Amino acid sequence: MTENLTASAAHLPESVIIACIFCANVTLRDGEMSKQRWTNLLAEGDISPSASPQLCGWDILADLENSVADAQRNNNEGFIDDPLRRFFETLNFSILTGIISAFGCLSNVINIIVFCKQKFSDSVNISLFGLAISDLGCVVILVWMSMCFSPLFQTLSLPFNPLTVQYLTGGWPHGCFGKISSFITAYVTFERCLCVTLPLKVKTIITPRRTILTLVAIFLANFAMNAPVFFGIGLGPVSSTTVTYLPYNTSTSISIRGLTWRSQTTGQSASAEKMGGAGAMTQKDKRLVKMITLVSTIFIVCFLPTCFNLLASIYLAEYSIVGRYRNLFQVAWSFIKLFESTNSSVNIFVYYNMSSRYRKCFRELFRLPDNEDVATTKKQEQRY
């Protein structure tokens, strides 16, 4: 084979031989497949002395350009290639996140109805009502984003690109509602801390009226901060890498802020209870503290991946939506959105299992028998 290769190469023009040598150097570095292809071409006589030198040269240079482009594309994919990235986006975003978010829409609507039935005389109910509204906004937007990432939705004859449109119509609103949920949970956690440290004064410090004003201020402030985006950024045929990345960065910054605040307040609550500061607390208040602490813990666990992803994007320059590791970055975000949808959907289980008042209203709403009433009836029947 070496003799045939040498004999064939002897009749080639000098420019073609130089191109072959350059191609061999490139393929030795980026893989053996192209090298074997060139060897077979020369050995089998596909490049013959009678062939047009200009045609052979253009064929070699064209194939060389394709080989270099393939090598650069493979290098730019990082650790995860495009097919694997699309698989995780479809699985996590289109399927799992879509299913969990659809359940979250139903669960948060139930939460809103139950808290309305409980009236708004208690500041905690008001805060949890506001949290249910913001969580409902989060999961509704995640349902829309999961549709945009669906391969079936992308194949429809639409007048827009779903992946481009969802960054503005999904990423920014989701980040806004994510901030609102963070601040509301931090507020209700802070209220429970005051209930532990100042049990006799908390009712005068945090009143239902002040809670309503605080929640309205949180909603309006976050809407106002995100409103300029929709006036300053338009939907056009050209994608902006800055616009593409900002929703991710915004959502991550939101999570860091909420995580730090909640960690501090939750730790203070637990420390005060251990030191005996809850001596004047009722059993109802203690159960409420445990419930709010569990809600905060779920938030922390679900948003830890967001914090790690932000730190990685800060310290790794190529780890971004437009960097070399963009596929890994997008796969990580598909898991992050899965955690975020879980955080906004599972509070109904916490309320039902840890709040007897919520459980009673829930069972009345669906006309289910109350377990406590059933147990009382059985005891009375046994007496007679």
UniProtKB/TrEMBL annotation:
Pfam entry (one): 7TM_GPCR_Srw
Main location: membrane
Keywords: Membrane, Transmembrane, Transmembrane helix
Domain of life: Eukaryota
Protein's cellular compartments: Membrane
GO molecular function: G protein-coupled peptide receptor activity
Annotated InterPro entries: 7TM_GPCR_serpentine_rcpt_Srw, GPCR-Ligand_Int, GPCR_Rhodpsn, GPCR_Rhodpsn_7TM
Transmembrane regions listed in the UniProt entry: 93-116, 128-152, 172-190, 211-233, 291-317
UniProt protein name: G-protein coupled receptors family 1 profile domain-containing protein
